[in-house]
Design a protein that fits this description.
The protein is mostly beta strands. The protein has two helices and 18 strands. The chain has helices at about 1-10, 20-30, and strands spanning about 45-55, 65-80, 85-100, 105-120, 125-135, 150-165, 170-185, 195-205, 210-225, 245-255, 265-275, 285-295, 300-315, 320-335, 340-355, 365-380, 380-395, 400-415. It has an 18-stranded antiparallel β-barrel. The longest helix is centred in the first third of the chain and has 13 residues, at about 20-30.
């Protein structure tokens, strides 16, 4: 595998490759005792290391810069049932080290904890907390000069949900969610915020496994670190219109249908609106949705496919939000009991709306991502993975096109 990477002549030397760590994993696979993770274990440990080479790290249309990032992580997993209750916790400690742009180095602490509670067999719910830390994608975060563009985004989500089986297949559902986004540096397009929202609705479940759900969600949000500048100080359209608060509402319908023993269909349709306290120019009301199809064609072949429409806030002078229409295809082939080949293709079109200063044409981007990977599990408790990924963007605005080739090597152990 290493020799194959050498023949590609892709611009990085083995001096930057975590050879000692990968060699250690290979030796462990060969000589370690038969200690492995099991789905029924209360506690599991998953150490992993890897490297990713990217020939256009900052997603630039010209003067592309290549770099490689070494990753190491340790995941601790706990799952324990208590009568009708179950407590689970996954914590991952990760480090990222860049060979050239070492100012981008960072450490991340990610976790996902949940208490699936039950007061009676008819009244159940979940209390959960998650945290995700990662470098903001350079697809959204443009580099303007030397040593810029480092933004570690941390997202925390705390949720309390409950379901009450009223009668038969009818269920009442409700909950409360606190969502927080924090940035390590100023990121105007996707500013830090806190959103408190509650939800209420109903669900019906058929004996066949099909279910339909209708939900209403209402939330109040506060942008963090923003200073309100009124039109009395700077008139429109030159005012940046960076609001300090917003209200977000959603009406959401979900459908899940097991078509056969080998295929299933699920769908989501939502009307999402966001209204800002001071600047209505930033408001939006968009119908979004998603349709997923999963098919287990044979014991060794599977296919997942999806179409979607999404909306996201993206605030600067040229836009307030964008609408993304996309498709995704993910085939998988179980070549043998130890080898799996996975592929994916994602296409999306982004339309940027709500510009403060209209400069035709309205920005529109087309992004494509294709990935092909191979997972090899020589023993049950170890997996070696290799993948190639190609990302591109074409835009009707200058200096937004890019092409990027990425190569990944990873090793993961399970104890």
């Amino acid at each position: 595998m290493i020799a194959a990477f050498n023949t590609l002549n892709i611009g990085f030397s083995l001096d930057s490759f975590p050879a000692r760590q990968l060699l250690g994993c290979l030796l462990a696979i060969c000589i370690a005792p038969s200690v492995q993770a099991d789905a029924d274990d209360t506690f599991n440990i998953y150490p992993a290391i890897g490297i990713q080479y990217d020939n256009n790290l900052f997603r630039q249309s010209s003067n592309a810069q290549s770099d490689s990032v070494q990753t190491s992580s340790l995941t601790l997993s706990l799952s324990k049932p208590y009568a009708q209750q179950r407590i689970s916790l996954d914590v991952t400690l990760a480090e990222y080290h860049y060979a050239k742009n070492d100012y981008l180095d960072y450490q991340a602490t990610n976790y996902n904890g949940a208490w699936n509670w039950a007061l009676t067999h008819r009244l159940t719910g979940v209390l959960s907390a998650t945290q995700t830390e990662s470098q903001s994608s350079f697809v959204d975060y443009q580099v303007s000069g030397a040593k810029t563009g480092r933004n570690i985004a941390r997202t925390n989500v705390y949720h309390l949900g409950a379901e009450w089986q009223v009668m038969g297949g009818w269920q009442a559902i409700g909950g409360f969610t606190n969502t927080q986004l924090a940035n390590s540096t100023s990121f105007q397009q996707q500013s830090a915020y806190e959103l408190n929202s509650w939800e209420v609705g109903g669900k019906y479940v058929w004996t066949s496994g099909s279910q339909v759900q209708l939900l209403y969600r209402d939330g109040d949000g506060q942008y963090k670190g923003r200073q309100l500048i009124g039109f009395d100080l700077i008139p429109a359209p030159f005012n940046p219109q960076n609001d300090t608060a917003f209200r977000q509402t959603e009406i959401e319908a979900r459908l899940s249908v097991p078509l056969t023993g080998k295929s299933a269909l699920s769908g989501l349709l939502s009307d999402q609106s966001r209204e800002h306290e001071h600047f209505s120019q930033r408001d939006y009301d968009v119908v979004t949705g998603r349709l997923d199809y999963n098919w287990q064609a044979t014991a060794n072949l599977s296919l997942g496919a999806a179409v979607r429409r999404e909306v996201a806030a993206y605030q600067d002078y040229s836009s307030s939000y964008y609408i993304s229409d996309g498709i995704n295809i993910q085939p998988a082939w179980q070549i043998s009991t130890k080898v799996i080949m996975r592929g994916s293709y994602d296409w999306q079109r982004r339309q940027y709306k709500g510009a403060l200063i209209e400069v035709p044409p309205e920005r529109e981007d087309t992004l494509q991502s294709a990935r092909l990977g191979l997972d090899w599990a020589p023993v049950r408790w170890a997996t070696l993975s290799a993948a190639y990924q190609r990302d591109t963007r074409s835009s009707n605005k200058e200096n937004f096109d890019f092409k990027s080739d990425m190569f990944n090597l990873n090793a993961r152990l399970s104890f």
